[in-house]
Amino acid sequence: MIEEIIPLVEETVRIGKRAVETGRLRVSITTEAAEETVRATLRTRRAEVERVTMDREVAEAPSTREEDGVLVIPVVEEILVVEKRLILREEIRLRFVDSEETVEQPVERRLQRATVERLPPGTATPPGAVEWNGDSIRNTEEPTS
């Protein structure tokens, strides 16, 4: 069997763009100055502020009002008034009553007695006894059974 190779051809497309001059524009701007007289009425208004101290108690806040061309704006301040009263709510009464009663009750009582015995120097201290050498105390061991 004979193999035959067939060459393949591929076509490619290339897209591009370019500037093409089709005409030109020229824009010119000129400014002219002309003197003219204009007339206008300008109004101004300013406020003169006068603060008048009142310091008096009122039942309710007064409303803003106008008196002889003057606008009156009341400024109020709400203050807290605290009243302190001492009220006796109750009394606690204590009456002390002294009484005596003889009672008998069994109790356990411990009693210790000490026996002092002098020993000659160099004598051994018996087990379970306490030695004191003038500076410190030492317990001697009890015999183990």
Describe, in short, the structure shown.
By secondary structure, the protein is mostly loops.
**Side-by-side strand order of the widest sheet:** 1-2
Encode the helix/strand succession as letters: EEEE
Report the count of strand segments. 4
Percentage of residues in strands: 5-15%
Mean pLDDT, to the nearest integer, reads 78
Please describe the biggest sheet, giving its number of strands, its sense, and whether it closes into a barrel.
2 strands, antiparallel
**N- and C-termini, Cα separation:** 118 Å
Which stretches of 5+ consecutive residues score pLDDT under 50? none
Structural class: little secondary structure
Quickly list its features.
flat, 145 residues, 0% helix, little secondary structure, 4 strands
Layout of strands and helices, then pairs:
Layout: E1 65-67, E2 70-72, E3 130-132, E4 137-139
Antiparallel strand pairs: 1-2, 3-4
Describe the structure.
The protein is mostly loops and 145 residues long. It has a domain at 63-89. It is 0% helix and 8% strand. The protein contains no helices and four strands. It has strands at residues 65-67, 70-72, 130-132, 137-139. A two-stranded antiparallel sheet has the order 1-2. Strands 3-4 form a two-stranded antiparallel ribbon.
